[in-house]
Design goal:
four-stranded antiparallel sheet; 2 domains
Length: 173
Amino acid sequence: MHEVDVVAVLADPVRRDLYEYVADAGHEVGRAEAADALGVARTLAAFHLDKLVDAGLLEVAHRRLTGRGLAMLLAEAVEAAGAEEALKAAAQRVPADPREPAEVLAERGYRPYRDGGVIRSRNCPFRALSEEFPVLVCAMNHALIGALLGAGAQVRLDPRPGECCVVVENSKN
């Protein structure tokens, strides 16, 4: 496919956002996950993902993504055992990454964007899990992002529909 054809395929904003999400995810992405991440219908996501495959920009792998089921079981066990603080403590032990916050977040499946004086994410990499266990997952996510960005990071919870609940103050710009 010629470069002009690739540009034409990516001209559609939904298709371009889907491509960026899948390319940045760092793991195989199912149609439902991609649709959820962008807040579009699964059929619309499937249509655009198929166009990206036809253009040679993405590859298809047919397998059941079972990690989500395991994550649900683990979250249920953590909650049942009252181990929320242990989970947060484990997240806080993740080594800090000295790079720019948006770059650190993007590498880990977030879709960061600047919104005034903060960095938000257009998605939650843990969305399916956070819908079932919002308090547990948002607390863990808050601790994880705080640890990743280091001691000087100003991280707070500020949930918005369809976005990550964690917001980073732009102190490292």
